Structure formats: C-alpha cells, structure tokens
Amino acid sequence: MSDIAIKVENLSKAYQLGQIGTGTISRDLERWYARIRGKEDPFLRIGESNDQNTKSASDIVWSLKDINFEIEQGDAVGIIGRNGAGKSTLLKILSKVTAPTTGKISGKGRIASLLEVGTGFHPELSGRENIFLNGAILGMRKKEIQRKLDEIVDFAGIERYLDTPVKRYSSGMYVRLAFAVAAHLESEILIVDEVLAVGDAEFQKKCLGKMGEVSKGQGRTVLFVSHNMGAVKQLCNSGIVLKNGLVSYKSDNISEVINKYLTTDDRELSNSLNIDGKKYKNQYFIPLMINTKKTSYSLKEEVEISILGEVLEPNSSLQIGFSLYDADGNNLLWSFHTDTITQNSFPKGKIKLTTSITPYLLNEGKYYISLGVAIFNQFWIIDPDNNNDRIYFEINGGFDFSNFWTEKRPGILAKKFNWKLEK
Amino acid sequence: MDSPNIYGKEEQKWTIDAKSSLLNLKLNEVWAYRDLLVLLVRRDFVSFYKQTILGPLWFFIQPLFTTIIFTFIFGNLAGISTDGLPKPLFYMAGITAWNYFADCLTKTSSVFRDNAGIFGKVYFPRLIMPLSIVVSNLVRFGVQMLLFLILMAYYYFTGASFNISWAISLFPVIVLLMALLGLGAGMIISAMTTKYRDLAFLIGFGVQLLMYATTVIYPLSEAIKKYPTYAWIIKYNPMTPIIETFRYGFLGEGSFSWFSLAYAMIVTLILLIVGTIIFNKVERNFVDTV
Question: Which of A102, A113, A139 sits opposite B18 (nearest CB)?
Fold first, then answer.
C-alpha cells in the first residue's frame, strides 16, 4: 500500500491583485511580446511569498510557491494553515478547477473533490433529479448513481422528500443530500474542503464517520482541509501545514502537526496583536490592538486581556468583547464589556478595555481568543467566528490544588468546586 | 458499500501540468461525461416550464408572435418582397432557423459567466456546457419546427403557392451547420468575455444587428437587386446561405448554390476549430479572472 497516490512537484500559483480588466490589453500584449522573444514573463518575475499584511511593489501574489510533497495511497492527510495560507488554492489545483502557474502534480486514481456541497443543484428539480445531476457533475455514470440511489437517499434521510423540488428543502436537508451524493462517489482520492461547517453537530459526526470509513475502511486517500482541529485529528493520520504559500511543516503524526501549527506560527506566539482596523468598515468602532500579558500561564494565574480601539461614533448598542476557543476550535464562551460596564455609551476617541479570565477555570492546554464587536441585535462589526485577529495563549502547570491529582485531568475546564460532607 | 479492493481495477494515471497542449481537446473525457450532457439538457428543458401554466407551449409563443409582427411591419407596412411566398411562411422559416443560431451563439458566449459558480467548484470537461446548450436549444428548435410544419400544412391545404424542393434533404446538414457556427463563434466570444466584459455588451445588440445582415426578413435576390454594391456583406455572412438553403428546401424559393453552402461550411469549420482551441485554453485559468 505504499504506492504514491499524489505527487506534487514545484507547484506554484500566482494571482494578480487589484482590478482585472482595466489596462489589461496592453499588459497582455507586453507579456505576449516577452514570451515570443523567449524572455521571462515581466509580471511574474518577483518571487516573494504571500504575506497579506505587507504591501509590495508587485501586484502579483504567489498563493503557492514551490510546493513539494507526496501522499501515499490510503493516507488521510489534513491540510492546515491560517486563512490565505494557500490551502484552498492547492485544493483547487488538485481538483483541476484552475491550473497551476508552474510545476506539476501527478497521481493515479479517480479524484472526487468536494469544495462545496450541492454544486450544480437546481432549485426547481426534485431531490431525485438533483442526485443524478449532481452525481454526473461529480463524474459518476448514470448507472453508477442508479445503483447507489437507495444508499444515498438513506444516508441523507430524505426519502419522503425525494420527489419534491429541492427549493422546498430545509437547509439541513439540502446539505445532507449534497454530501450524501459526494460521499458515495466511487473514487480513489477524496478531496474535502471545509464543507462540514454546515449542518448540525449530529450530521457533522455522521459525515466524519463516513469519511473515516472511506479512508480507513476502504483504503482510499483523503485530503481534508479544516480549521476544526478536532475533526482533523479524528480523521487524519498525517498532516501538512501551509504558511504563506509554503509548506512549513509536514509529518506522519497528525498530533505533532497540529501542535506545531498551534505553537510555531510566529504571529500566534506573540501575546500582542496590532490590528489593521480599517478592514472592518463601519462608522462606530475601529479595533487597534488586542493583547495578553504573556503567552503562557499557570492554572492559578489570571489571564489578563486588553483591547485597544477607537470609538468613531458613540452608540449605546456597541458591544466590545471576545470569543474564547480551545485548540480544537470549540467556542467556549463569549464575553462582552457590557457584562459589567454599565456606562451607556463611550465618547468618541481612543479607549482601552481590560478584563481577565479567572484562575482555576481553564484546564491545561492551548486556547485562543478572537475579537468580537457588534452593534447589539443588529450586526457584527467583527464576527469572532470569522476573523483572523486572534491571540493564542496556553495554560500549564497541572491541577495543583489537589493532593491526589497533580497532573492534568481530562476535560477542558479545571474548576475547583466546593465539596461538603453533610452526613 | 464498495468492494474493498478498489485498487484491483485498472487505475487511471493523470498529471496536472502548468502548460497544456493546444490541440488536445480531451474529447475522450467529454465522451466519458456523456451522461452529464443528457442530464443537463433534461434540466434545461424541465426547469424551463416548471411552475408555468402554459408549460412547453411557451416554446411556440415567441416565434408565433414574432412572425405576426414581422408580417405586419416588414411585409405589409414596408412592403418588402417575400419571393412570392406567403408572408407568414416566409418569415417563420427565417425566424425559426435564425433563432436556433442566435440562441446557440448568445447562450454559449456567456457560458463562463453563467456557470462560474459550478466551474469554480468542480471539474468536468468544460466543453460539456456549450455542447449541452446547443443540444438543449435543438429540442426547442425541434418544437418550433413543428409549428413551422403546421403552418406549412395550413398553407398547403389552402392552396398557397410553394413547393418543397429536393434541397430539403440537406436539412440535417443545415441544422448541424447552424449549431456548430453558433457554438464556434460563441466559444470564441465566451473565452474573451471572461477577461474583457465589453464583448458581453456587444453580443446583446450585435446579434440583433446581425439578423438584419442575414436574409431573415428579406430574400437575398431582393437585396442584390436594391443594393448591388453592398449586397456582398449579406452574401458573405455565413448564416445567409444556411437560411437561403433552408427556405429553398422547404418552400422552393431562395438563392441556393453549392458554392455558397460550401463557403458557409468552411467558415463554420474554421470558427469551430479556433473556438474549441481558445475555449480549452481559457478554461484552465478562467476561474482566476472571471
């Protein structure tokens, strides 16, 4: 089984930043002229990595730069990295949706890629018709779908609705059906982008189970991209960390890969993060900085958090706070300044808010907090689930208040409760 | 579910490369996805009349009304000759054939934009999409041909003067030519509109203008008589010989010549080859620029 399923060699992909379309004819002519003289493409010359924060002279960006790796048959590989690290680009190239700029990938076996669930679903058509259409788009022959129809319907649990147009489906049913079609595709390689973010917890579990069955039970190769480290850990046996378009770490031990990813990213190590607040376009509040005093705390220390920002327009519904996550990306809690500060609205100008996570609350482990700012009941200015302005910290030092158990106990929390003897 | 030994099958090897050969049209892949073609055509047909009362009748309404309007305006008001044929019959012949070509052209030319969502998420041979457009429109064309035949039957029994000529046997060739011409020109435009949107605006009224440069509302003989110096524009429009042959075949009037039909075939072939090559080239990266 140690055959190579996918071999990626010197793979690069360049994207053009800014407007496409204006002034491109002259540019296209220039490139074409350079090419026929056998010279290098003048717009692809500058070889720099893709750091989204630094401005550069060139408006060409390398989303992937000289990537090399091999994947063995039957491996379940987790591809992890921050947003913009090149994960999706890699999957797009692997699924042949877009072509690489340089380099090549070779492999064997049919690829089924699931970059999105329900691609090509037509709202007017019935569930049954859509199963056939979607299956065919994914590359199945009609008789193959026919053979698996019962299984697909059963997995999706939509038997009663099979002949109803999918526009009448609940969003959950829609996703279930779409995933079911893709999961039953007979392919040697399965590529899954973060599509499991949709659907309820039970269904997510079912999908993960199905994918696990695919990789472990049937020896198919699975490539899985997710920000949910728990899912990656559960499903994959090896992993690749991408950073700014480069492979920064790669190992056959998935726990090691996840650990490395959560600890070695230089930005994630720092306890202070300057935020480019302008990207959150709104008239009320611009975040400037979020920090903790340290990156590593013991169980008995409080984690002090401060948020710096500028109020542009006083608003009594403004809520500033954060969302706390564990290393697997599970949301543990939300906290907002309005929980304890009762002042009606902040005046215009810079403000600094501080709070702290109480000691003896979080168990040993790695955590991150993500900024969350909202106009209450109306909209997010910064959605904590959907931004990269995070800081990471870790808690260590064991369960020191017990004489019986000084090591880390299982569980996310390490709260001490009061015990009383009543009889 | 699956047999555990899926590797027992012969495995396809593949490579994804930065450069591709221009002439590799991947037709074997298109063949492998033929079921998708059928399902897409079915989808287009079924979703067209879902939740309508008249259903497939809508296919009739557009050519019928256009014929009526043309008969009044061009036939009666402007008094343009129809080669002695009954006016509605003359116009409907032109409209039916022209509509098929025009639909193929306009739909194909926006194929990348219309399907950017699907194309950006899943791979299948992109050529399937324009092919499905041409075939879907063929269904529609078939329905409209039925209407034309009904009209022909009506005029036949009321004793109007027209006669079917031997050229009717060229009908399959003409349909194929219209389909491929629309497909070829459409693919060229579609490939260019992914980057330069300007063409998308042009195509809307361009097709309309082109209709007036084709012998849809007048016979070629009339154009040559009235504008002998400019008639070459109409003559060298590849759609003109196609429509003329169509009329000659079904109604017995029209300027048919083997030479002009061969000319239309050559133009079609060139456009088709160029179109397929450009389409295949653009297909690889269009997701980044669309």
Answer: A102
Position B186 confidence tier, pLDDT thresholds 50, 70, 90: very high
Q: For residue B12, is it within any domain? A: no
Return the amino acid letter for B273: I
A92 Cβ under 8 Å from any chain B Cβ: yes
The mean-pLDDT minimum among A42-56, B98-112, B152-166, B188-202 falls in A42-56
Number of H helices, E strands in chain B: 14, 1
Residues of A in contact with B16 (CB under 8 A): 93-94, 96, 99-100, 104-106
Complex confidence, ipTM: 0.81
The verdict on residue B16 lying in a domain is no
Nearest CB to B18 within list A104, A136, A137: A104
Q: So where are chain A's domains?
A: 4-11+68-264, 269-396
Instruction: Report if residue B128 sits inside a domain.
Output: yes
- Choose among B1, B18, B47: nearest Cβ to A124: B47
In A, residues 370-399, which contact B (CB 8 Å cutoff)? none
User: What pLDDT was estimated at residue B81?
Assistant: 83
The fold for domain A269-396 equals Coagulation Factor XIII; Chain A, domain 1 (2.70.50)
Rounded to 5°, angle at Cα B99 from B96 and B103? 150
Q: How many domains does chain B divide into?
A: 1
Rounded alpha-carbon distances, angstroms, from residue B263 to A373, B101, B222: 68, 17, 21
Question: Cβ contact (<8 Å) for A105 and B288?
Answer: no
**How much is the pLDDT for A404?**
73
Q: Is A133 in Cβ contact with B40 (below 8 Å)?
A: yes
How many angstroms separate the CA atoms of B12 and B18, rounded? 20
Name the residue facing A97 among B18, B121, B197 (closest C-beta).
B121
Fold of A4-11+68-264: Rossmann fold (3.40.50)
| Beta-carbon separation of B6 and A122 below 8 A | no
pLDDT tier at A81, thresholds 50, 70, 90: confident
A278: exposed, middle or buried (Cβ count in 10 Å: 0-12, 13-18, 19+):
exposed
Q: Which of residues 214-243 of A touch B (CB under 8 A)?
A: 217-220
Q: Specify if B40 maps to a domain.
A: yes
Q: Which residue has the higher pLDDT, A104 or A187?
A: A104
Going by C-alpha positions, the residue among A360, A355, A385, A361 that lies closest to residue A373 is A385
pLDDT value at residue B137: 92
Q: What is the pLDDT of residues A256-270, one digit of tens each?
A: 888 777 766 544 455
Contact present, A236 and A256 (Cβ < 8 Å): no
Residues from chain B that touch A75, judged by Cβ atoms under 8 A, are: none
- Position B270: which residue type? I
Answer whether A105 touches B (CB < 8 Å).
yes
- Residue B183 belongs to domain spanning: 31-289
Is residue A59 less than 8 Å (CB to CB) from chain B?
no
Average pLDDT for A159-167: 89
Distance CA A239, CA A397 (A): 28
The 10s digit of each residue's pLDDT in A287-302 is 888 888 888 888 888 8
Search chain B and give the residue with CA nearest A186.
B2
